[in-house]
Structures are given as C-alpha cells and as structure tokens.
Design a protein that fits this description.
With about 700 residues, this protein is mainly β. Helices cover about 10% and strands about 40% of the residues.
Length: about 700
C-alpha cells in the first residue's frame, strides 16, 4: 500500500479500535483504522513511499487499510505501537523534503541506522532513494546533527559504500579461542569478604502482578511474537544518593587493609531478579561500585566506575534475588567526598528464566537442542539476550556471527531490531551463554550461573517497516571459551530449502526447530513481503516470544540466512510458520564489518624523504584496514637492513611517538616499517627513504 504523497499527517480526535485481518481498498485518500463513528482516520504520507509497515501491498497511491474488530485492550497496545511507528516518519520526510528530495519525486527503498565512523558515539541515518522518473538508486545519510551527506561525503567520513548488487558470499563457523586471561573473573563483594556491616537501604512494596500480566497478554495478542518481557520498572520513592561524603542510606566504614566502603540493600519482594539503575555515577580514581546477591556474595556484577556516555545512566547486570546489595569502594588516598552516586529505580524481574511458577515456560512441542548432536557446535554460538526496553526488562535471542578476517575474532552478535534498536538499548544488553541442558531432555542450569557478557555497541540496524528487522552488535566483552562464531551466506535461498532455528522460547532454555522455506498464503505474508523475509514452515518444533532475533540456518550447511521477526507459529496453531528477515537483504548494511577489505598497512609518515633531527621527537603515522585492537611492531631500517626495533608491540591505532636516539648514525637511507604482529607477512614501509641529522 502507498500513502498519499500530497497529504500531511492529520489525526482527528477519535477512538481507535484494533482490527485483525488486513484488507486494502484503492481509490481512497486516507488510511482508516476502525469502523464508522468509532473509527480512527489519518492522512499519512509516511515518507511518500510504499507503506509496508502496516501491510506489504505494492499498490498505487492512494490506498486504505481496514482492520476488523478485535477488542479494546488490544487496541490500546496496538495503537501505541502504530502511532509510535508512524510518528518517526515526519522528521525523515521533512529532512528529505528540505534537502531537495521530496516524496513526490523520490521513493525511499530502505532506511537504516549505523555507527558514524567520523564521530565517536554518534550514528548516521541512511536512506536508499529511487527517483520516481527513473534512473539509478542512490544513498544519502543524515548525521546526528542533521547534516546531509552524499556518497562522496560519506566515503570521506570513513563510511564504506553499500554494495547493494554485490555477488553473494559465504563463510562457515569457527570456535572462539579467547585466552583465559581475557575472560576475567567477576570481582568478589568486599562486604562479604571483609565481614563488614550492611546497614540501611530501600524496601519497595509488593508488586501487584495482575495488571502487569494483563498488559503482557494484551501486548502479545496485539503484536504477535516479540521480546519476552521478564521485568518491569520500579521507581524508588526514597532515592539512594551519595554526594560530598554524605549518604542518604547506609554509611561509610573503613576497610581493614585500607580504603573506605559504603553499602546499602534494595529489597523488591518476590523479585526473581533485580537490575539496578545508576542515574549518576562519578567516582574518583580507583573507586568502583558493584552489585551482589545479599545471600550469595559469589553472585556479583561490576565493577562500575562511570555512567553510560549517553547520559541516561548505567544499568547494572541482573542480580538473581529479591534483595540486592550495592556498595561503593574508595581506595586509600582517595576521598569519599569525591563520590557521586544516585540510584533512582530498578527493574523487578517477575518472570524467572525457565523455572519460576509465574514463568510462561516453552510449549511442549519444542525440541531440546542437546538431543541433536549435529547442532552441538553451532548452538553454542546462540545466546539469550536481556536488555532494558521502554516497558522494562526484555529477553530475546541472538548469535555470534563470524567475519571473513581470519586474523581477528571480533564478537559480532546478530539479533532483531525489535529486540535492540538503539545505542542505549545495546549498552544494557547482557548475553546468557550455554543456557541449555547438559544431556538430552535433562535439567537446565540456572541462568544465574551460566556465563554472561555485559554491554554491547550498536553497529547497524534497520526496522521491519523498511528493512529486514535486523540488528548487528559488537559485544563489549569477549564470549566465553567454547562459544562458536556461526557462519552465514548472502546467496539467495530457494523455496523448499531445509531450515533450522536455535532459540530461547519464552526465555526458557535453548531449543531447536526444523522446517523448510515456503510460500504459504496467510495473514503475515501480506504484512512482511517475501522480497525481504523468508517464510519457514515448521515440520518439528516452533518459536515463541523470546525467540525473536534467533538465527535461521540452512540445515545442511549450518549457515545463517536470517533472524526471527515473528509469525503465527506456536505449539497450538495449525499454521505453524514464521518470518525471518533475509540475511542476503541485510548483508549490504553489515558487509563492512563481516567482510572487511583484505588487511593492509600503509605508512603515511615519514613517507616522502624528509630529514628528521637526531634527538628530536616525531610522530610515526600509518593507516590500516583491520582492527585497531590488533597489535603492530615498528622497526627502523636502513639500506635494506634492520637497525633497531622502535616498538615491539603497540596498538594498531595509526600513531606512535618516536624519540630519535641521537646515537643513531647521521645520513640517509632510513625507512620505517610497520608489521602486523598476528601476520608478519603483512607490513609496509616508507615509500621514499628519509635522512637523520
């Protein structure tokens, strides 16, 4: 369906009733939700493009969507979802109109968000435009400051061009080989180790679960599959605050052996887990905060030293208890007066992953992944991912994904945009590894004691309305040893191809389902067009809320071809199928990460035969096409022979300071050589020899 490109949004006061079956009429000038006097009418340009966010019809403008009656609770939830979605269109439309690309002349084919290589902690919005009068499609970008970038300007900023028509590529899985020293153990809680006193804290009233569960049921009915909500926000009426050495709760006490410690408890009755929100956290050097289980100090998260860079604060990892202790340690020589710490809210987990009686455990038709030995390796790359969303604590599924660079092991992680769609969402992510049974149909471990990694950086994402509902993250910490980077293919997939999904249905332990790519006509087909989504019909197993973002594999090659958006599949439905955003369509937005250019090094300075003074200080500069966290070796050569090693091991960040030893022989013939530590055959040196004098 296409909205009328001549109209702006007009939303009269009216009731909205949500309807279930999508039908489209042409020849009208409006989009209609509802019926008669209870209807809701809006004129919506939605970027002047084909309107796939409600129904994936490819009709000519204008058109109407009519949605038959389904119930008022569901309507409120669906209305909020749709209006939030529609409200995002106006700024994009206004921006493109002001930039000289009106919707009457250009159709928006794709919209996405990606990290801005020209500005740390910033993001670009990309637009793929097609002239309505004909001609090639092209890309534009909008910076976080509203600046327009065309393709050359984006390239100058360090952004790789999107290879929309590039031939498909493939790669295969590989195990993680993280060294033990990189998998650092969590700190121990100082309070427990030193037998210090916990005094004071905040106690919240009991949570009334009835409205929470009713809201969950309405949301699930309205939106189908999605993240499994496992926790809700609870604000502290009595905010916990440290400033100037004064504590609103608890007190400071000396630590035997040196240093000062403050601690306070937070009780939220019957919680199966708590995530603490630091609205402010600014500590002196060496000081840190941590959160731990009041009755099990072995379960501890941290250390935390500063709030998130987006200034929305910092969410601590989940503590699986209804009573969490927060403490702040200040080392000897630093003052508690320099500590600023504020805790204003928590997330109260009311669903315990897989075990609590309040949990919606996975349906009985799901298959235990451990029963399928052929998937024992690939399944170890799939993890449950918890995050903080608009409605509380959410649980989805995702997986480690391999890149084509054999010299690096970057923890890229693929999930769905409707699970994580922003940098702030990503910063709260915690991945649960190996949350699966140890034997076929055996007992599952407690998620409190499986390995976890916390925090991620958003790299690239696109929602379901214009893209494929994907999100590519880079985890802030390496995965545990034994995890697997799964392979992928960006080649098209034929109907009838065997498919497999590994997932965490309803936040439960890991399951596996089998099916085939299909073309079965049903309601979701019209919502998510086949040119951007794979339909997989299940022959064994299914998916559920919480499975969102899980990888769809080709059964024979174990390669990823998509990630779960949703669908009608369940243990109780006769239409047991689901939709996965197509990896081959997402791939151009991930290629710069997953298939980087062959690694290279280019010495930039000294590079043109200058004369540098003995005893002086100069900067060596180079550029490279691979990971800055890698290491390089810097050597000084003269007339084909190495003179000395200047830096035996330094970051591949393109810069190094050099004090030119005055004892070096004066004269010409010198070059700088930069060598990769992981691949000594990869190096470059100054193009023209320079002189020292």
């Amino acid at each position: 369906m296409v909205a009328n490109p001549r109209r702006r949004r007009e939303i009269p006061d009216a009731f909205l009733i949500w309807y279930d079956v999508f039908t489209c009429w042409e020849g009208q000038d409006r989009v209609v939700f509802g019926n008669g006097p209870l209807g809701f009418v809006m004129h919506e340009t939605f970027l002047g493009r084909d309107f796939p966010s409600i129904a994936g019809f490819a009709s000519q403008p204008p058109a109407v969507v009519y949605l038959p009656l389904m119930g008022s609770i569901r309507g409120v939830v669906a209305a909020a979802f749709l209006l939030a979605l529609l409200s995002q269109s106006a700024p994009a439309e206004d921006f493109l109109q002001a930039a000289g690309f009106p919707s009457s002349s250009y159709q928006v084919l794709n919209v996405w968000t990606e990290a801005d290589p020209g500005s740390a902690d910033a993001y670009l919005t990309g637009y793929r435009l097609s002239p309505r009068t004909g001609g090639p499609s092209f890309d534009l970008y909008r910076t976080s400051y509203g600046e327009l970038l065309d393709a050359p300007a984006a390239a100058a900023r360090g952004l790789s061009p999107k290879l929309w028509d590039a031939p498909g590529k493939s790669t295969y899985g590989e195990p993680a080989t993280v060294s033990p020293e990189e998998s650092r153990a969590a700190p121990k809680a100082l309070t427990a180790l030193k037998s210090l006193t916990i005094s004071g804290g905040a106690m919240l009233p009991e949570l009334d679960l009835n409205p929470v569960l009713a809201e969950d049921a309405a949301r699930t009915e309205a939106m189908g599959k999605g993240p499994e909500r496992i926790g809700v926000f609870r604000d502290l009426d009595d905010i916990i605050h440290l400033e100037g050495g004064q504590a609103s709760h608890g007190f400071w006490q000396d630590v035997p052996g040196g240093g000062t410690l403050w601690s306070a408890a937070i009780l939220s009755p019957d919680a199966s887990g708590i995530r603490v929100h630091f609205a402010q956290l600014d500590l002196p050097p060496g000081a840190y905060a941590q959160v731990y289980h009041a009755l099990d100090s072995g379960e501890v998260s941290g250390p935390y030293t500063a709030a998130a860079p987006d200034s929305t604060g910092l969410w601590a990892a989940t503590c699986f208890t209804d009573t969490a202790v927060v403490e702040c340690f200040v080392p000897e020589g630093e003052s508690p007066e320099d500590c600023l710490l504020t805790i204003d809210r928590i997330v109260h987990n009311y669903i315990s992953l897989g075990s609590n009686s309040k949990a919606k455990s996975a349906g009985t038709c799901n298959n235990d992944v451990t029963c399928y030995s052929g998937w024992s390796s690939a399944s170890k790359g799939v993890g449950g991912i918890g995050s903080i969303g608009d409605t509380g604590s959410l649980f989805c599924t995702g997986c480690l994904i391999a890149d084509t660079d054999t010299h690096s092991e970057i923890p890229y992680f693929l999930t769905a945009n409707h699970c994580i769609s922003s940098a702030s969402d990503a910063s709260t992510a915690e991945v649960y590894w190996f949350y699966q049974t140890s034997s076929c149909n055996g007992s599952a471990p407690s998620p409190a004691y499986v390995p976890r990694t916390s925090g991620a950086t958003l790299l690239s994402t696109a929602d379901a309305s214009t893209g494929t509902d994907f999100c590519l993250l880079r985890l802030n910490a390496p995965p545990p040893i034994g995890a697997v980077y799964n392979g992928w293919t960006s080649l098209p997939v034929n109907l009838g191809t065997g498919t497999t999904v590994v997932h965490h249905p309803s936040g439960d332990f890991k399951r596996i389902s089998f099916g085939v790519t299909s073309n079965v006509g049903e309601t979701y087909r019209s919502i998510r067009p086949s040119d951007r989504y794979h339909q997989s019909s299940w022959t064994s197993g299914t998916t559920e809320p919480g499975s969102s973002g899980s990888p769809l594999f080709i059964t024979t090659s174990l390669q990823i071809i998509g990630q779960l958006w949703g669908g009608p599949g369940s243990c109780s439905t006769s239409t047991n199928l689901d939709y996965f955003g197509r990896f081959d369509k997402s791939y151009p937005l991930m290629a710069s990460y997953l298939d980087p250019a062959p690694p290279s090094i280019k010495v930039k300075r000294p590079n043109t035969g200058p004369t540098w003074p003995l005893g002086g200080r100069k900067g060596i500069r180079w550029v490279s096409s691979w990971n800055a966290s890698e290491r390089v070796r810097i050597e000084l050569w003269r007339n084909g022979s190495m003179v000395r090693v200047l830096k035996p091991r330094t970051l591949n960040d393109g810069r190094a300071a050099w004090y030119i030893d005055p004892s070096l022989p004066a004269g010409g013939g010198y070059v700088i050589r930069i060598i990769s530590k992981s691949d000594p055959a990869l190096y470059d040196e100054s193009d023209v020899p320079f002189s020292l004098q």
